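To assess whether the prediction recovers the assembly geometry, we first specified each molecular entity separately, as shown.
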Amino acid sequence: MEIMEPDISTVAGLIADSARSKILTALMGGQALTATELSIEADVTPQTASSHLAKLLEGELLQVRKQGRHKYFQLKGPHVAAVLEQLLVLTALSTPKTSTGPKDPRLKHARVCYDHLAGELGVQLYDALVSANMLEDFGELTRLTEKGKTYFMSLGVDFQQFNKNSRPVCKSCLDWSERRNHIAGHLGSWILNYIFEQKWAKQDLDARSITFTSKGLKAFNSTFLIKQ
Amino acid sequence: MEIMEPDISTVAGLIADSARSKILTALMGGQALTATELSIEADVTPQTASSHLAKLLEGELLQVRKQGRHKYFQLKGPHVAAVLEQLLVLTALSTPKTSTGPKDPRLKHARVCYDHLAGELGVQLYDALVSANMLEDFGELTRLTEKGKTYFMSLGVDFQQFNKNSRPVCKSCLDWSERRNHIAGHLGSWILNYIFEQKWAKQDLDARSITFTSKGLKAFNSTFLIKQ
DNA sequence: CATTTAGTTCGATGTACATCGAAGCATCAT
DNA sequence: ATGATGCTTCGATGTACATCGAACTAAATG
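The predicted structure of the complete assembly is given in tokenized form:
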């Protein structure tokens, strides 16, 4: 007669497999990927990937769009991304060597975290907005000030639109490589979109890291008041 | 040469097993439990539980305190609890029947979520504080107002102490049964502690649900301005 | 039409691991 | 001392499942 606690183990089991976890983290890049792309990413044959993708769909972690003979897969929603991000943080904390490790060029510098900017640049953006009094920082809590609100409205943000669904406007998100906050939520999503719209940067092939043009980086820095 | 993304799958694998997930959710109750208690909770023999507990320790999800011939296990920290909570939310979302289900007496009413109050009472507390202008609600974001700060200081909260480590003072946390916010973070932890200190309630045997005395419930309601 | 490409289904193989019984150490009680 | 309790290690058993080769469907291409 007791209320059953939801059974975590099945969902965790979906993430537990090495190939599937690679697929999921690849999809943290935010963009939809095809089955074969994901099979390459996961380093398994297409047949194996197909089986995994079926399971991830069944488990409601992914969604598909069919286009011609291609199938484009995506994370099902922000809640899924949140779980993955938390797991990344936890793993990064318990294995300090690999995480803050020395190597790596681009992924550490700037990458996409589901639908917003992460990496060094993401953290810099966060810090700049805080020191410009556009963002108030309370640990993991973050709030856009009036000044910040008017500023982003001048850039074209429609906050009316944001409030329509339940997603928070502005949410901080712990970065597993930097271990610092960066901006998630609606605003984070909008900013990343803006970056691509302005053609300041483009997403790399590996679907997670992004590269700024030199002009784009300058524009980004000046628009968001990041002091070099 | 690329930076390796942390391997989520190993941590997920620890949670993926049915017995281990039962152990972990049992420990979401916040209080330390012995190996045999956990073996009962997980519905396996002591030997099996022992093997699982060793793995969870190895994987840094748990910590132990040895006392005499007993071993008391606990979640290693808030980050672990955060992952579990996110997984609970995700699972609850994808299986709506079981989660918001009809049955259940106590667990739905008031329970402990790692170190703070959840369930109907937790949500009521949250709402009351918001409507009393002590808490500002921005979706998943929450902030204590000046009014709230002074109020809690009058109850004996030492905010100086809170700021010493990195944990956020006040953080909202999605409730998997109610699908509404409740208070986590330092303040959430303090409030739960206060409830036990005042002997308004005691934690049940199943380690997750808590029962208020009738006097305690009244005191709780009036202290935190919850209108019946 | 035939041919390539994307994705699937099926069956066989192998491996990882959860489980418990039995036996072994501690620690507490009497 | 002797016995009881809490927890662990070892070994044997069984099962679940990831993997790929081979063969199949569906869509684009020419």
